[in-house]
Amino acid sequence: MECNLFYTELSRGIYRISDSLHGPNSDGFSDAPGRATQNSYLIQGQEKAALIDLAVDTPDLFSYACQLTGLPTQVLLTHGHPDHVYNLESVGEAWLHPDDYDLVLKGIPGICFPIHNVVLNPLKDRQKIDLGERILEVIHMPGHTLGSVLFWDKQSGFLFSGDSCSRRLLYGLTPTVPLDEHCKKLAGLAEFPINHIYTAHDRCGLPKAHLLRICELIRQELPKSATTVIIPGIGIMRNLRWGDENTLDYFDMAVEESYVEGLLK
Ligand SMILES: [Zn+2]
Fold first, then answer.
1. What is the pTM of this model?
2. Which domains does the chain have, with CATH numbers?
3. Element of type H or E holding 141
4. Residue 7 pairs with which residues in a beta bridge?
5. How many of the other CB atoms lie within 10 Å of CB of 12?
6. Fewest CB atoms within 10 A around its CB: which of 162, 164, 220, 253?
7. How far apart are the CA of 236 and the centre of ligand 1, in A?
8. Distance between CA atoms of 165 and 169, rounded to whole angstroms?
9. What is the distance between the alpha carbons of residues 183 and 16, in angstroms, rounded to a whole number?
10. Residues whose CB falls within 8 Å of the CB of residue 243, separated by 6 or more in sequence, listed in order
11. Ligand 1: distance of its center to the CA of 64 in Å?
12. Residue range 17-57, pLDDT digits in tens
């Protein structure tokens, strides 16, 4: 797949690595809110670096990240969906919550193939990853997948949320927890000092208020939405599309119907 990697230094030692061919608008390098993009994050400590997600579809991503800091680099995965583990086999090793191991090792029927030649190491809730003078904290948040995690960097106050807290949310692709449980966990993140939320598919930082905003939309607006959407390989899902894609206050959710029913009980 053709790809043009570039990076943006979001804060000292924190890089967003993106693909200019798939920008949020016609300017491939823009960090504006817009259509879905692909973004990985590289966090640099004194001793090593962490690459959060293999979320840009090119075999060059890992070597690009390693060259950026010149440090040993470990790959941390927010979850096991195929668009977060591009070229994982060639990287060879990653850290992931064990509840998502099967998504990687067995694949998802109709969606993605298994990945075999890879070493997976476990991440657990509240685990601290010491990069040297910078510590990333793991927050396990079952929802988007059972093994979804977020990473919080105390130093910058940045939360790297993968697909768990984003302007778009796919829910129930594979069996997961009730939506209300997910919302409670999201709301609980308000205890963390968070400056910005960086997601895998938004090329812009989201405000902390987005956490409560999406809980509100899920609880109040989703059950009222009569719209459905067909997801290739999955089928029909309930859809809530809220606001303008070109603004921060946008939310597009596709959810398997039984989770909406569960919300109303
Ligand atoms: Zn995902």
1. 0.96
2. 5-209 (3.60.15.10)
3. none
4. 17
5. 9
6. 220
7. 17
8. 7
9. 27
10. 249, 250, 251
11. 23
12. 999 998 999 999 999 999 999 999 999 999 999 999 999 99
